[in-house]
């Protein structure tokens, strides 16, 4: 079984503070990937007096939260900070800061004599020290008469008033500028670390090779040796035998010693010289309250106060799910479940237990996992440890909150509540698609499967009676296949396709029920005129196949073409669709009605309602949009109509002009006929190079006597 590797504690200057509050600040990182928080302003201060005013309002809120509404004499006269005047003068501000400083220092002295290590009291002590740290930093406003300040959220998500740290952005001297935490911002300037107070002053000068963020009034720093530095810049004695250190919370940190061991230490380690936990080979965060420890190859859990929670006796320990109260334990290459109080809930008899996630929009706060032993796989709900029946296999849950279960040779579906919603009776089962349909096949005889599509409730939308089914395409159609023994082309056994829509209706059926041709279909994602879905048809032709096309309305799923065509063009201005069959062109309308049977070798774009077409005799004529012949097939060439007239040809130097009714406005007796762009008149040139001009209505306007002779001769 794969061993989960222990993540060796990596000591760095990256802070690890109040994970539960980090989400309140945007996850912004610097160029090296260090989390620095969101330092953008939520409000800009008008002047220093305004900054002092807002700072004092926030400090008062912090005290009120700490005192839980108890009366105190720090703000006995609150008019100075509750009045409409948004400014607070230096003297008044200094008075309140001094009172706060004195109160918090008295509280700290009181709690330092209390040796109770209950986690609740640890949090209380931490809160007081954190607030004192913020007050000390805020004292800088006592001596400020000018400067720019902003309101922002610090790394804990608390609202603070401070110097705009983002103003350092782009300054090449700074390698790190971190958001405020407990009143101080960690910076790296000129390759050494220090701290800024809320006014942006370097209250603890940059001088350290390494530095951790402030942690309840003290910060771990390194200059060859590791020290503590307090909020006033005072350094402790060197921390004995500590070679690396990392800040956690509640004034507690992880330290690595010269002997290679690691342990938890508190902020009094410089005096006590004793860790608050046992020594281990490794320590890493496990969840918000516990830490995973390792000795040799065995693991256990300790609390933040260093007390042992779970004996170091397991091959591995991992959270079962982010929101669950269970953890996966491993012993003797088998896994089980234990709660964080050390109570085994599922004995370690499984090959693996894995948690997985499901789309929150389908199943919010879901905490499911797989558990596999020699009997098979089951689902486990980590919230209440309910388990499903054992199955041969279980897939991941899809976006509908369903997973495929396989029981022996058959498949079904189970939901996130561990309820079987479709019994495992299918030989094969596909995933539900965007239309809420899944392909399914049943064994109807030994080694004989019949397939179709089912809905969420297991009912059959497309009956399970076909030999093959494909996947639904973009516009909601699918091809199914049936094996036929009396095919006409090719003769004998063949596969015949049909097309269904997403509502279960047949769009294209068998070509001939008595003796079907083995036509295969392929639904495409191609749309013609934004209206029709193109379906390819593969029609048998000897030992080969001929590719043809059908059209289906994308909205109604009505088949437009009642037969397949070799080529289909977009519909034109007359809403007619040119189609080709057996090498001949015809017209159908947008309902599929045949307007002109495919009988023409060529068809031109319509002009003025008429189509130029070439007939079997290779001569051109015109048909209208009802398919009726308006101009017989007498011409070698025809040109589009222009104001009811068309230039036509009956051979070399035999050009003329006709109207829509084939009246010869100019007989085919001219070597050249052109339309003049400026006037739209016709210019005709005869064999003797005589020129004639006809207006746009076909009336002669130039050299008309000679033109009448030519027309008279043609009429005879």
Describe the fold and architecture.
The chain has 716 residues and is mainly beta. Among the domains are: 19-314, no CATH class; 643-716. Strands 4-5-6-7 form a four-stranded antiparallel sheet. A four-stranded antiparallel sheet has the order 14-15-16-17, with no helix packed on it. α2 (48-67) runs parallel beside α4 and α4 runs antiparallel to α5 (119-138). The chain is elongated and about 130 Å long. The model is unreliable at 1-27 (pLDDT under 50).
Secondary-structure map:
Blueprint: H1 19-22, E1 43-44, H2 48-67, H3 79-82, H4 90-112, H5 119-138, E2 150-153, E3 159-162, E4 174-181, E5 184-189, E6 192-196, E7 204-208, E8 210-211, E9 218-223, E10 225-230, E11 242-249, E12 252-257, E13 262-266, H6 269-272, E14 282-285, E15 290-295, E16 298-303, E17 308-314, E18 316-319, E19 326-331, E20 334-339, E21 344-350, E22 352-356, E23 368-373, E24 376-381, E25 386-387, E26 393-394, E27 402-407, E28 410-415, E29 420-426, E30 428-429, E31 438-445, E32 448-454, E33 460-466, E34 468-469, E35 477-488, E36 491-501, E37 506-508, E38 520-528, E39 532-541, E40 544-553, E41 567-568, E42 576-581, E43 584-589, E44 594-600, E45 602-603, E46 610-614, E47 620-624, E48 629-635, E49 637-638, E50 645-649, E51 655-659, E52 664-670, E53 672-675, E54 682-685, E55 691-694, E56 700-702, H7 704-715
Antiparallel strand pairs: 1-2, 2-3, 4-5, 5-6, 6-7, 8-9, 9-10, 11-12, 12-13, 14-15, 15-16, 16-17, 18-19, 19-20, 20-21, 22-23, 23-24, 24-25, 26-27, 27-28, 28-29, 30-31, 31-32, 32-33, 34-35, 35-36, 36-37, 38-39, 39-40, 41-42, 42-43, 43-44, 45-46, 46-47, 47-48, 49-50, 50-51, 51-52, 53-54, 54-55, ...
């Amino acid at each position: 079984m794969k061993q989960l590797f222990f993540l060796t504690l990596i000591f760095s200057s990256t802070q690890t503070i109040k994970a539960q509050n980090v989400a309140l600040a945007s996850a912004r990182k610097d160029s090296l990937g260090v989390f620095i928080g969101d330092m953008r302003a939520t409000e800009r201060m008008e002047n220093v007096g305004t900054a002092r005013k807002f700072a004092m309002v926030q400090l008062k809120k912090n005290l009120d939260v700490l005192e839980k509404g108890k009366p105190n004499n720090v703000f006995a006269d609150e008019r100075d900070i509750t009045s409409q005047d948004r400014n607070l003068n230096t003297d008044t501000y200094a008075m309140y800061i001094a009172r706060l400083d004195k109160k918090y220092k008295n509280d700290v002295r009181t709690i330092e004599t209390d040796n109770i290590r209950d986690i609740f009291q640890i949090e209380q002590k931490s809160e007081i020290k954190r607030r004192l740290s913020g007050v000390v930093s805020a004292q800088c406003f006592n001596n400020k008469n000018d400067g720019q300040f902003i309101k922002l959220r610090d790394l804990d998500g608390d609202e603070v008033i401070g110097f705009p740290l983002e103003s350092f952005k782009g300054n090449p001297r700074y390698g790190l500028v971190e958001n405020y935490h407990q009143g101080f911002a960690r910076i790296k300037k000129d390759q050494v670390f220090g701290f800024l107070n809320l006014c942006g002053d370097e209250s603890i000068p940059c001088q350290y090779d390494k530095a951790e963020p402030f942690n309840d009034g003290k910060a771990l720093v390194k200059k060859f040796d590791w020290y503590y530095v307090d909020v006033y810049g005072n350094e402790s004695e060197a921390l004995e035998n500590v070679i690396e250190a990392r800040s956690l919370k509640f004034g507690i940190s992880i330290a690595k010693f010269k002997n290679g061991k690691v342990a938890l230490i508190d902020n009094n380690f410089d005096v006590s010289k004793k860790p608050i936990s046992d020594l281990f080979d490794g320590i890493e965060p496990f969840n918000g309250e516990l830490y995973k420890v390792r000795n040799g190859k065995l693991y256990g859990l300790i609390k933040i106060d260093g007390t042992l929670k779970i004996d170091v006796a397991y091959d591995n320990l991992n959270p079962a799910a982010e929101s669950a109260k269970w953890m996966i334990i491993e012993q003797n290459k088998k896994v089980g479940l234990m709660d964080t109080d050390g109570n085994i809930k599922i004995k370690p008899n499984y090959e693996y237990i894995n948690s997985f996630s499901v789309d929150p929009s389908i199943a919010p706060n879901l905490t499911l996992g797989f558990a596999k032993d020699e009997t098979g796989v089951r689902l486990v709900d980590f919230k209440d440890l309910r388990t499903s029946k054992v199955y041969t296999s279980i897939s991941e849950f899809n976006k509908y909150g369903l997973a495929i279960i396989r029981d022996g040779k058959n498949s079904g579906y189970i939901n996130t509540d561990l309820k079987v919603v479709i019994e495992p009776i299918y030989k094969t089962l596909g995933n539900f698609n965007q239309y809420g349909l899944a392909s399914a096949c049943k064994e109807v005889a030994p080694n004989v499967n019949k397939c179709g599509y089912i809905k969420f409730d297991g009912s059959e939308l497309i009956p399970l009676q076909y030999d093959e089914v494909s996947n639904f395409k973009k516009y909601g159609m699918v091809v199914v296949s049936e094996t036929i023994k009396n095919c006409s082309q090719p003769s004998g056994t063949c596969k015949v396709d049909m097309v269904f829509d997403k509502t279960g209706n047949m769009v294209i059926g068998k070509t001939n029920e008595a003796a079907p041709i083995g036509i295969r279909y392929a639904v495409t994602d191609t749309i013609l005129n934004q209206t029709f879905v193109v379906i390819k048809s593969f029609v048998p032709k000897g030992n080969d196949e001929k590719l043809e096309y059908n059209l289906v309305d994308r909205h109604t799923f009505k088949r437009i073409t009642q037969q397949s065509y070799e080529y289909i063009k977009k519909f034109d201005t007359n809403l007619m669709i040119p189609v080709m069959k057996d090498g001949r062109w015809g017209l159908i309308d947008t309902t599929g009605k045949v307007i002109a049977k495919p009988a023409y070798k060529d068809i031109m774009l319509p002009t003025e309602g008429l189509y130029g077409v070439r007939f079997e005799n290779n001569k051109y004529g015109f048909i209208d949009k009802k398919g009726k012949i308006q101009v017989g097939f007498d011409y070698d060439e025809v040109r589009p109509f222009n104001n009811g007239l068309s230039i036509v040809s009956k051979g070399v130097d035999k050009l003329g002009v006709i109207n829509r009714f084939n009246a010869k406005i100019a007989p085919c007796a001219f070597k050249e006929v052109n339309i003049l762009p400026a006037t739209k008149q016709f210019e005709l040139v005869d064999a003797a190079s005589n020129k004639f001009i006809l207006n746009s209505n076909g009336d002669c306007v130039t050299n008309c006597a000679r033109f009448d002779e030519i027309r008279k001769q043609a009429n005879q």
